[in-house]
Structure formats: C-alpha cells, structure tokens
Design a protein that fits this description.
17% strand
C-alpha cells in the first residue's frame, strides 16, 4: 500500500511538472520584443471613456520589461538527461524552467520531481548556479546546475 501511495505521489508530481513545463514553454519564443502598435485609430470614439480604474494594458510610452530565455546544455547523468531554460528580465534571473529531468526509472523521476523546485528556488535566490546539491539528488542536482551554468554562460550573465 505504501508503495502504491509513493507511486501515486510521484506520478502526480511529474504531472504537475509536465503541465507547468507545457504552460511555460510557450511564454518566450525568442529574444525580440514586440513593439507596441503605432497605428492610429481611423475614427474618433463617440462615447466618453469609462472611468473603471487603471488599464491593464501598458500605454505605448510605458516600458515593458524585456524577458530573454536561454536554454542550457543537455547534461547527461547516470540516471538520464537534464536540461533547463533560464529566463532573465532586466538582467535578473526571474525563472528557471526544467525542460528535461532524469527519467531512467520511477525512482529517478520521483527524485527529480522533488529536487527541481528546490534547485529552482535556490538558483533564483542566489542569482547563480553556485548553490548546494539537494540531499539525495546528487545526480539531478549536478545535471540541473550544470545546465543552469551553461545557460548563464550563453547569456554572458555574471550575476
């Protein structure tokens, strides 16, 4: 029964990671910002604008932070391949997305699912790949942090 519970928790964790990855994988397709539209309206509105508070859409004069993403190298480990994407906004690491985690066995999937969020938070806090391994997840940690470092190198990020 305990093994079944562990399996269900592990599969659930992997499902959460996959859904998060899929939701986040389309957020930044390239490093080029989209300029606001410069087209002027061809007609003048006939009704006065509503006073419903501030608009959620930035005006063309407001600066929109540019987010850039760099994919780290695929790092081979004893238990599978690890790869991450590091997202920068205004020169700061704002996200680390696991693109691939170790997956050679049910145990390696469970370990990676537990370690990845911890490593992500540590990298974000340190603004660096120079963080400690997660206990019990040495191979995942080394692969994850190696991939983060290669993305930081590709971005020319010195922290």
């Amino acid at each position: 029964m305990r093994r079944l519970s562990t399996t269900i928790v592990g599969v659930g964790s992997v499902a959460v990671l996959v859904v998060g990855w899929l939701a986040g994988s389309n957020r930044f397709t390239d490093d080029v910002p989209v300029a606001p539209s410069t087209r002027l309206p061809t007609t003048t509105p006939t009704s006065p604008p509503s006073d419903s508070g501030p608009s959620a859409v930035p005006s063309p004069t407001e600066a929109v932070p540019l987010a850039t993403a760099y994919d780290g190298q695929l790092i081979e480990t004893k238990y599978g391949t690890v790869q991450v994407r590091v997202v920068f906004t205004d020169g700061v690491i704002t996200d680390v997305v696991a693109l691939k985690l170790t997956d050679t066995s049910e145990t390696s999937v469970e370990i990676s699912a537990r370690a990845a969020p911890i490593l992500r938070e540590e990298v974000l806090a340190a603004q660096s790949a120079a963080v400690s391994n997660v206990s019990g997840a040495t191979y995942t940690s080394q692969g994850y942090l190696g991939s983060v470092q290669s993305a930081l190198d590709a971005a020319g990020f010195t922290g």
